[in-house]
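Give me the fold.
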Amino acid sequence: MSDELRNFTAYIEQLADKDKRWSAWRVLNEAGQGALAAVREGLSHHDWHVRQLCAMLLDHHWDEASLQRLVLTLDDPKRKVRRAAVHSLGCDRCKGGENPIDAVPLLEKRLREDKSIKVRRMAALTLAIQQPSLRIARILRRALRDETDSKLQKSAKWGLHRYGQTRTQVAVTQAIVD
């Protein structure tokens, strides 16, 4: 193990300590790409706080290998870890580039099957902020039909509204071109 990885691993361990957690998180966040190997390892840590914070770090600092590993945390026993993973996998806004993972089917599964309403809400919101598409609109319509939670429905309605605006803009642009 390199000295750099060993140092970042020490900070990963500090994420489990409530008194050192946020200072360690800041160091790892500032290290960015340099800390990814340790952050990936942290996704398997025995302490759920560490797994959650590592999932959160991957929202802004990621590579394809890290996102592939993050997919496994969607089945974590702790709701807060799954919720962080849902956001980090699906939030293209935070990625600042093309997401190499097709997150839509993963988010759809969490929206339909997760036992936690908070994870399902996050999945609905994360789908709603994706680039609008017919595929996402179908998923959000199904959520409106099947879910009774008002917060989840609000996210689905907002996403469908965005989809409708995008469709209208495309139609207007096409009419101008023609």
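The mean pLDDT is 89.
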